[in-house]
Amino acid sequence: MNILFVCTGNTCRSPMAEHLFRSIMEKEGLPVRVQSAGVSAIAGMPAAHNAEKVLKEKGIEMKHTSQPLTDKLIRWADLILTMTSSHRQMVVQQFPQSVEKVFVLKEYVEDDPDVTRKRDRLNQLYAEVETKQSLFLAEHRDQIESLQKKYRELEQELADIGRQLDEWQHKLDRLIQPEKEEIKLLEQALPDYDISDPFGGDENIYRQSAEEIEQALQKLKKKLE
Fold it and tell me: Is 160 part of the annotated catalytic residue set?
């Protein structure tokens, strides 16, 4: 039997699952071949250091390089076990032919009958929703397509209005550009009137702030006089 474990980058979870399960199968003497891959993996990346460290503590040497999920791997696998439900969704989206053999690992090994019953009912509901949705869209296709067409027309009209507003804004910017440049130069030439905030600083910072305030107060005194 060929089992494929899948996660995102194929450097942490799925390679740990691959090496752990291979070790278990070897000890049991069972004829199972194991690989792992990632739905967004870059080929040739090493396993995460902490993943290697954890498995080494269990006596497993992890010699691993990442590989992306491919059609060849999908065809190789008899069973595909993903680390999360989102991984399963991505696998099925990329490779629809895998739908019958791809499962979430923890879901696949669930042995609580009540949970299993609820899961089966959930899958049944998913199928019913998909069927009803397809029938509904087929029945009302003309009306929906007509509304979609109107929406696209309005969307284009709004885009044209947006471009016109941008053009007016550019005209205004050009009109006031000389004044804005002079304002910028004057702002740079004038001193900064803010008293610095000493919060989080040491004694020296607070001391500088106090001196800054005191200088301002001395000027206030002279002005009032």
Answer: no
**Residue 7 annotated to the active site:** yes
Q: Is the separation of the CB atoms in 7 and 48 below 8 Å?
A: no
Whole-Å CA distances, 204 to 141, 152, 192, 198, 217: 74, 63, 21, 9, 20
Tell me which residue range forms the domain holding 46.
2-108
Q: What is the pLDDT along the chain (225 residues), one digit of tens a residue?
A: 999 999 999 999 999 999 999 999 998 888 899 999 999 999 999 999 899 989 999 999 988 999 999 999 999 999 999 999 899 999 999 998 998 899 899 888 887 888 888 878 887 887 788 889 889 989 999 999 999 999 999 999 999 999 999 999 999 999 999 998 988 888 788 776 667 777 677 778 877 887 878 787 888 887 776
Active-site position among 111, 112, 114, 142: 114
Domain stop point among 91, 108, 125: 108
Domains: count for the chain: 2
C-alpha neighbours within 13 Å on the C-beta side of residue 205 = 7
Strand partners, 65: 46
CA dihedral (63, 68, 74, 79) in degrees, to 10, reads 50
114 given a catalytic annotation: yes
Q: Is residue 79 part of a domain?
A: yes
Q: If we measure between CA atoms, which residue out of 108, 106, 125, 130 comes closest to residue 13?
A: 106
User: What value, to the nearest 5°, has the Cα angle with vertex 116 and ends 114 and 121?
Assistant: 95
3-class SS of residue 200: coil
